UniProtKB/TrEMBL annotation:
The lineage of its organism: Bacteria, Bacillati, Actinomycetota, Actinomycetes, Kitasatosporales. PANTHER family: ACETYLTRANSFERASE, GNAT FAMILY, N-ACETYLTRANSFERASE ACA1. It comes from Streptomyces globisporus. CDD domains: NAT_SF. This is Acetyltransferase. Pfam families: Acetyltransf_1 (PF00583). Residues 1-162 form the N-acetyltransferase domain.
Length: 162
């Protein structure tokens, strides 16, 4: 698996799984009806943020990550990231590779920590993955997320010092 800078040419491969994940409404706080043009603008953020894709040896996009500042101004020393893995390629270590890549990126860019603002507590695979990489749950917003089948569930704030 290779992780490289994403380009606009990657969007047609990203959009189908981006749309499927977002419209399912189980893991992200994005609008469920986010259209393709708006979604591309939300995902492809300008520098100093970064967007990457994980690809296999054939060049197939397996997943993507968006890395950015968590806050502006005096809070701009904390990074954040969002990950999307094509469900057709889950269980192959793509999410782990993207998460590790983003931690290395944040450290190299001089960030002091990473914080995830809204990790849905029912997304137990993601919570376990982040914890295995050294993130801690530092708080939970009770009923902060309206899950389509579980109802109102908490969203974790997760943190890792760099």
């Amino acid at each position: 698996m290779l992780i490289r800078e994403a380009t606009s040419e990657d969007w047609p491969a990203i959009w189908p799984f981006f749309h499927a994940i977002v419209s399912a409404g189980e893991t992200l706080t994005y609008p469920l009806d986010l259209g393709e043009e708006d979604a591309e603008g939300w995902w492809f953020v300008p520098a100093p943020s970064r967007v990457v894709v994980a690809v296999d040896e054939a060049g197939t996009v397996l997943g993507t990550a968006k890395m950015n500042r968590n806050h502006m101004g005096n809070g701009s020393h904390i990074a954040s990231a969002t990950y999307l893995v094509d469900p057709a390629h889950s269980g192959r270590g793509v999410g782990r590779a993207l998460c590790r890549y983003s931690v290395d990126w944040a450290r190299a860019e001089g960030y002091r920590a990473m914080q995830f603002n809204a990790v849905v507590e029912t997304n137990t695979r993601a919570v376990k993955l982040y914890q295995s990489i050294g993130f801690d749950v530092i708080g939970t917003l009770p009923e902060g997320f309206n899950h389509p089948t579980e109802g109102y569930v908490g969203i974790h704030i997760m943190h890792k010092a760099l």
